[in-house]
Amino acid sequence: MPLREDDHDKAEKADQTVIEIIMKSDQFHIVVATLIMTITFAAGITLPGGFESDPDSPNKGMEILIRKTTFLAFVVSNAIAFTFSSVAIFIYFIMASVVPEPENEKIIQKLYDHAAICQCLSMLAVVIAFATGMFATLSHSLGLAIIVYSISCLSILFYFLVFIYIARKL
To answer: Among 79, 40, 47, which residue's Cα sits nearest to residue 63?
Structure first.
């Protein structure tokens, strides 16, 4: 009988350690999610390309690049990044309210997994927003725009390579 109680205590301590590791990594993740949310908010307010300032123009105050497809892609991907980042932050707040006890380990693990997915999607969307925003504003210098767009796409390729590597190791 004492052996079983000892095994139970070891399992409970292991569960507690997993919860502690998750909660510690949450502190870093929430900082990253907050930074992404702040950056995407600022990018949404200060749109690339500027606004029409000619007082005689019927489009005064309107975004100059509004008719460019790459600008529209920027706006959509920036909104996606903002949304996923804010959802990740919300999930981290929910996690903070869950009592870190072994019986809540599954709940904490699921919340952590969902928040991590949201955060990865927001990082992917930020890269796409950056690439499309730069392409829209640099369209008069097509060579430079293509170089910046290509470099940005490399980071997306690296994301997928890391995910494939991790998937193979699991």
So the answer is: 47
Q: Quick one: angle between helices 105-137 and 69-97, nearest 10?
A: 160
Q: Longest Cα pair distance anywhere in the chain, in angstroms? A: 89
User: Do the Cβ atoms of 149 and 120 come closer than 8 Å?
Assistant: no
Crossing angle for the helix pair 2-45 and 69-97, to the nearest 10 degrees: 150
Cβ–Cβ under 8 Å, residues 43 and 77:
no
Q: Using the 8-state DSSP alphabet, how is residue 104 labeled?
A: G
What would the two tokens of residue 6 be? 């000892």
Q: Per-residue pLDDT tens, the chain, 170 aa: give them.
A: 455 665 556 666 666 677 788 878 778 888 889 899 999 998 888 887 777 777 787 877 777 788 889 999 999 999 999 999 999 999 998 988 887 777 888 888 899 999 999 999 999 999 999 999 988 888 889 899 889 888 988 988 998 999 899 889 88
Closest by Cα among 116, 113, 115, 99 to 15:
99
Residue 13 falls in which region: left (phi positive, over 0), alpha (psi -120 to 50) or beta: alpha
